[in-house]
């Protein structure tokens, strides 16, 4: 019995929740001024809540039929009838809210059409001076774009010229490096050759000096020691 009471209370709480959801959605529909897709979305939510509410009322009615005590059974049946009446009242309010919303949306669409017609009339009344000014503005914009494109072309030409100059400078520098390398190699060969010749000269001087000393010693020997 206690378990049954718990299920009954849970069912009644869910019925109350869906009832409040429906009332809030009906209020949103009543205040909806468009677009039509928004109204359609709200109505879909209402249908879903009504479906859930109807199922829970049926569950509560089934629980009433399963009560052991007649008094408990009658109490729940009375609550079920009250929920059904409340659901019918919500359905009536739902239909009225839809009518009010559709009327509001129709009025908004009519107003938009009227505003569009007024705007079209104002556009048709545009003066020749306005058209001339528009044409002048377009021409000025085109000329401005043309000048910008000319500047871009000039900048591109200057950049290409600068790149060509830089390329020539690099080539000239490379040629100078090659010339300097050749000069350095030639100088190295000359220094090596000079060093070799200097060594040869020193050797010849040394041999000449040795020959001279040998000659002097020979003369001194003959003069001082003729008997040897």
UniProtKB/TrEMBL annotation:
Which InterPro entries does this one have? Sec20, Sec20_C
Instruction: Give the signal peptide range.
Output: none
Superkingdom of origin organism: Eukaryota
State the Gene Ontology terms under molecular function: protein heterodimerization activity; SNAP receptor activity
Spell out the coiled coil positions from the record.
Answer: 43-70
Q: Answer whether the UniProt record assigns the keyword Hydrolase to this protein.
A: no
* Domain (Sec20 C-terminal) ranges: 134-224
One matching Pfam family, short form? Answer: Sec20
Q: Where are the transmembrane segments?
A: 203-220
Biological process terms from the Gene Ontology for this record are: retrograde vesicle-mediated transport, Golgi to endoplasmic reticulum
Q: Which UniProt keywords apply?
A: Coiled coil, Endoplasmic reticulum, ER-Golgi transport, Membrane, Transmembrane, Transmembrane helix, Transport
Q: What is its main location?
A: endoplasmic reticulum
Q: How does it sit in the membrane?
A: Single-pass type IV membrane protein
The GO cellular component terms are:
endoplasmic reticulum membrane; SNARE complex
Q: What is the protein's name according to its record?
A: BCL2 interacting protein 1
Q: Which organism is it from?
A: Seriola lalandi dorsalis
